[in-house]
Amino acid sequence: NKDVTEAIQKVAAAYDCKIVEGVLSHQLKQFVIDGNKVVISVTNPEMRVDDVDFEENEVYAVDIVASTGDGK
Predict the structure, then answer these.
(1) Cβ neighbours of residue 63 under 8 Å, at least 6 residues apart?
(2) pLDDT digits over 35-60, tens only?
(3) What's the structural domain count of the chain?
(4) Residue 60 belongs to a domain
């Protein structure tokens, strides 16, 4: 999931945008929209997520919020 966080940051920087802090992307399961595995959009020492590995056939809701401001 750290690789995804880094990729999100790189794409935002390429477009002169900042990713809004506090937004998480969640693993989806049948009848569960906020699974245990998450990806944080912006690394933040106050909001930590566990390192996870993606597995075949997993599904995620990818939430990305970008701003041309400071991203807060």
Answers:
(1) 23, 24, 25, 26, 41
(2) 999 999 988 888 888 899 999 999 99
(3) 1
(4) yes
